[in-house]
Amino acid sequence: MVTLGDKPLVTGRHAVFGGTFNPVHNGHLQTALELQRLLAVDSLGLMPSARPPHRARPQASDAQRLAMLELAIASYPQLRLDCREFARSGLSYTVETLSEMRREQGDDVWLAFCAGMDSLLNLSSWHRWQALTDYAHLVICARPGWSMSELPDGELRDWLATRLETDVKGLDGSVAGKVLVVELTPYDISSSQIRQAIATGESTRDWLLPSVTRYIQQHGLYLEAG
Predict the structure, then answer these.
(1) Which residues contact 107 (CB under 8 A, 6 or more apart)?
(2) What's the total number of domains in the chain?
(3) Rounded to an integer, what distance in angstroms lies between the CA atom of residue 76 and that of residue 94?
(4) Which sign, positive or negative, has the C-alpha torsion 130, 131, 132, 133?
(5) What is the CATH classification number for the domain harbouring 126?
(6) pLDDT band (50, 70, 90) for residue 113
(7) Centroid of chain to Cα 18
(8) Cα 189 vs. chain centroid, distance in angstroms?
């Protein structure tokens, strides 16, 4: 297994923001833009999960979620799509994705995987979760006022304690191996709430871009609660 945490940074910075994006909403976009600026990457990749093993299959198809993402980022050149998980058969494991990205980029390129707070809280249920930082830094977008006490006692908390950074500059000395928990601008909405609102006929104007709303309406998505 390749361990890159102690390797010096040589050149290049790459970061992706993973999620189901079911559907992509304004909170996703604002978080992605903040991450792109915070991590000082030329562009941030939005990487939709094809078949995440820890979640039910998304209501929208892979192609539909991809189409909504394309519409959502059309006006943001600093955001891009990374669709590699759609090309993989079977379940989608983040550690395999990061291993693939590391092979592509080489051992001297700075790499970060960004995810939401729920991912950290459930991390110990992920496939080979301890190996994630062998290939990349892990950047967690936390809720305001989060604390280590939210994590269950045991292996996850111990693992995090040896890798945790409190400032983004702490990621600059190596190409992988650290965990940064950042508090970004809060956006009090979730994709599940939006799906529920659509199913019950409520307005989603404040949460979705008009282009995404039109696509959802044209394709009759999320008409059933769930």
Answers:
(1) 2, 4, 7, 175
(2) 1
(3) 25
(4) positive
(5) 3.40.50.620
(6) very high
(7) 2
(8) 16
